[in-house]
């Protein structure tokens, strides 16, 4: 129009070019969207693996034993769906596709995970492990997942959470319908993240079954577990003390039998001496000897003839006369003729 500068007419065209360039740069910077709607067969993939793909959907495949190593060579893999595959075990579990962000392992038959599984998954953001039979998780589970945002662990048989899972970036933790042991250690692990424990319901101990973990006073929970540990340790200690006491008594009795008492022969001899000591003392018998008495004159011949026995001392010490051979007591003083 008349009176307008010549460059004014080019202004709308310049703005349009700028908008087109900005949209082009934004499209190049934005990540390529993945389409995981078309499921693949896992065995067919193992026979002809893909070198590069942003998404792999193996849901509902028949995979009882998952060969995790077959997935490590796929470049650019960001989402992996292995749900409803009947997976009961995982082998070759070391390593993770470095670009992996979303992993689906729900609705399987996993009872445990191999040690080191998902230990080094730096870009993992969302993990689905619900509807399995898991009883425990590895101690270093998700240790390097600094970008972790959501973890789904519901409908398992878990009793404890490893502290490595509770990343500062974690925003959603689904843990309902498990067998949680409401211990002082579990409460301490979740103490700084009460927003993550809203669905954690106690299964043990029995007196807290059905109660939410955060509704139990810390003093009661920690003290009760201390008393439980004491009651568990007390019976074995009492049993050991009883055994030690019996052993000491038996050893003392054995020492008395062999050290304080005399052997059977010596004891019998001692008893015999005691009996003799209590009885009246009887002097030992001495052999009788014939006393030699001087013969009277006139009797030497008779004695030499052997007709009479030698004279014996009387009861009072005096000598008796010789006894004649015929039994005549005439030679004994005091005897009747």
Please render the helix and strand layout as text.
Blueprint: H1 11-29, H2 42-47, E1 55-57, E2 65-67, E3 79-81, E4 89-91, E5 102-104, E6 126-128, E7 150-152, E8 172-174, E9 180-181, H3 184-189, E10 202-204, H4 218-260, H5 264-278, H6 300-305
Parallel strand pairs: 1-3, 2-4, 3-5, 5-6, 6-7, 7-8, 9-10
Kindly describe this structure.
Helix content is about 30%, strand content about 10%. With about 325 residues, it is an alpha/beta fold. The chain has a domain at about 35-215: Leucine-rich repeat, LRR (right-handed beta-alpha superhelix). The protein starts with 10 loop residues before the first helix and ends in a 32-residue tail after the last helix.
Give the spatial strand order of the biggest sheet.
1-3-5-6-7-8
Number of alpha- plus pi-helical segments: 6
Helix and strand sequence:
HHEEEEEEEEEHEHHH
Q: What share of the residues lie within helices?
A: 25-40%
CATH topology of the domain at 33-216: Leucine-rich repeat, LRR (right-handed beta-alpha superhelix)
The secondary structure category is alpha/beta
Strand content: 5-15%
**Radius of gyration, taken over Cα atoms and rounded to an integer in Å:** 57 Å
Low-confidence segments = 25-30, 323-332
Major pleated sheet: 6 strands, parallel
Name of the CATH superfamily of the domain at 33-216: Ribonuclease Inhibitor
Gross CATH architecture of the domain at 33-216: Alpha-Beta Horseshoe
pLDDT averaged residue by residue: 78
End-to-end gap: 209 Å
Shape: elongated
Got a strand count?
A: 10
Class of the domain at 33-216, according to the CATH hierarchy?
A: Alpha Beta
Pfam families: LRR_1 (PF00560), LRR_8 (PF13855)
GO molecular function: pattern recognition receptor activity
Transmembrane segments: 227-248
Protein name: LRRCT domain-containing protein
């Amino acid at each position: 129009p008349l009176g307008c500068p010549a460059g004014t007419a080019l202004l709308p065209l310049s703005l349009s070019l700028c908008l087109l360039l900005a949209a082009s740069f934004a499209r190049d910077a934005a990540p390529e969207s993945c389409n995981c709607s078309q499921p693949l067969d896992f065995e067919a993939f193992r026979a002809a693996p893909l070198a590069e793909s942003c998404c792999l959907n193996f849901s509902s495949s028949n995979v009882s034993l998952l060969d995790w190593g077959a997935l490590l060579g796929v470049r650019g893999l960001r989402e992996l769906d292995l749900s409803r595959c009947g997976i009961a075990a995982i082998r070759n579990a070391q390593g993770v596709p470095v670009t992996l962000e979303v992993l689906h392992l729900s609705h399987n038959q996993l009872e445990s995970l191999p040690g080191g599984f998902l230990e080094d998954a730096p870009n993992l953001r969302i993990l689905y492990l619900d509807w399995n039979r898991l009883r425990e998780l590895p101690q270093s589970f998700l240790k390097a997942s600094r970008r972790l945002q959501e973890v789904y662990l519901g409908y398992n048989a878990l009793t404890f959470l490893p502290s490595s899972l509770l990343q500062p970036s974690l925003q959603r933790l689904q843990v309902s319908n498990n067998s949680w042991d409401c211990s002082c250690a579990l409460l301490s692990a979740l103490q700084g993240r009460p927003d993550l424990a809203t669905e954690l319901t106690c299964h043990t101990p029995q007196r807290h079954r059905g109660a939410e973990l955060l509704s139990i006073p810390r003093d009661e929970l920690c003290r009760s577990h201390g008393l439980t540990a004491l009651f568990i340790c007390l019976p074995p200690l009492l049993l050991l003390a009883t055994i030690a006491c019996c052993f000491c008594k038996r050893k003392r009795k054995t020492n008395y039998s062999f050290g304080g008492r005399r052997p059977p022969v010596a004891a019998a001899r001692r008893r015999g001496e005691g009996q003799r000591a209590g009885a009246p003392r009887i002097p030992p018998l001495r052999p009788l000897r014939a006393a030699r008495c001087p013969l009277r004159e006139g009797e030497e011949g008779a004695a030499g003839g052997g007709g009479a026995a030698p004279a014996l001392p009387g009861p009072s010490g005096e000598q008796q006369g010789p006894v004649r051979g015929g039994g005549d007591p005439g030679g004994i003083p005091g005897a009747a003729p």
